[in-house]
């Protein structure tokens, strides 16, 4: 089976990482040849785990599996407001950038395809943009009784749904229910805006996150693989 796809330039990633990057678009199938690939230093593809033929074809074409991804969905008909939740402010960006850089040290933005510090830099910028409302629309913080940061979640409003962008609990607040509070607050944020579902994705290697989403009432909707060449 040949690889049939066009290539969509990922301009933001290309600029951020100084690496010309493209994403395969399977909705416009044309033979993937050297001339189409030549402008890009890195090609990415996201493929459903059920699409075995396409996965095989990509690997025969030189693509390598980098990471698996699990996508969850949570209904939000009934939610409750959570204590100790705050909206992140721009004055908190330096603290939150450091927290995100420490929390997301391993991702698909890793060696040998990206520099060693790429994941930390990428997610620090993501969190900054979420606080400013320029990518995700809002960042919620979980704090303790003294107002100290325990964790954060970023949220983006879609057509009928919301999506969690980033969710992390600080090491000092692990195993104290903060993750459940953040998920419940995200669900409440979604319901208050008249949306129907909350979506969230994580790496297949992140068992702790998957356990959190299951315990929060989410259902596994799909799985996929990321491949690079």
TrEMBL record:
Record EC number: 2.3.1.210
UniProt xrefs under SUPFAM superfamilies: Acyl-CoA N-acyltransferases (Nat) (SSF55729)
N-acetyltransferase domain: residues covered: 83-229
PROSITE patterns: GNAT
UniProt: acetyl-CoA binding residues: 206
Enzyme class: transferase
Substrates-to-products reaction catalysed: dTDP-4-amino-4,6-dideoxy-alpha-D-galactose + acetyl-CoA = dTDP-4-acetamido-4,6-dideoxy-alpha-D-galactose + CoA + H(+)
Keyword Transferase: yes
UniProt keyword annotations, A-Z: Acyltransferase, Transferase
Short name of one Pfam family: Acetyltransf_1
GO molecular function: N-acetyltransferase activity
Domain of life of the native organism: Bacteria
Active site residues according to the UniProt entry: 213 (proton donor)
Pathway: Bacterial outer membrane biogenesis; enterobacterial common antigen biosynthesis
PANTHER family assigned: AMINOALKYLPHOSPHONATE N-ACETYLTRANSFERASE-RELATED, AMINOALKYLPHOSPHONATE N-ACETYLTRANSFERASE-RELATED-RELATED
Quaternary structure and partners: Homodimer.
Biological role stated in the UniProt entry: Catalyzes the acetylation of dTDP-fucosamine (dTDP-4-amino-4,6-dideoxy-D-galactose) to dTDP-Fuc4NAc, which is utilized in the biosynthesis of the enterobacterial common antigen (ECA).
Similarity comment: family membership: Belongs to the WecD family.
Protein name: dTDP-fucosamine acetyltransferase
Naturally occurring in which organism (per UniProt): Duffyella gerundensis
Gene: wecD
């Amino acid at each position: 089976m040949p690889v049939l796809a066009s290539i969509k330039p990922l301009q933001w990633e290309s600029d951020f990482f100084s690496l010309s990057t493209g994403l395969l678009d399977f909705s416009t199938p044309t033979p993937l040849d050297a001339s189409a690939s030549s402008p890009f230093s890195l090609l990415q593809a996201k493929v459903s785990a059920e699409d075995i033929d396409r996965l095989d074809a990509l690997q025969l074409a030189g693509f390598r599996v980098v990471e698996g991804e699990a996508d969850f969905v949570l209904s939000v008909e009934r939610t409750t407001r959570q204590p100790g939740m705050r909206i992140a402010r721009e004055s908190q960006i330096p603290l939150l950038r450091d927290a995100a850089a420490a929390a997301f040290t391993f991702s698909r933005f890793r060696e040998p395809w990206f520099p060693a510090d790429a994941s930390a830099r990428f997610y620090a910028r993501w969190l900054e943009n979420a606080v400013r409302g320029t990518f995700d629309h809002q960042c919620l913080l979980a704090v303790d009784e003294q107002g100290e940061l325990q964790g954060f979640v970023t949220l983006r409003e879609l057509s009928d749904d919301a999506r969690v962008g980033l969710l992390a609990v600080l090491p000092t607040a692990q195993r104290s229910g903060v993750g459940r509070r953040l998920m419940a607050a995200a669900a409440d944020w979604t319901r208050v805006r008249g949306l129907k579902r909350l979506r969230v994705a994580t790496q297949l290697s992140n068992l702790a996150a998957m356990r959190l989403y299951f315990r929060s009432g989410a259902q596994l909707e799909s799985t996929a693989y990321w491949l690079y060449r």
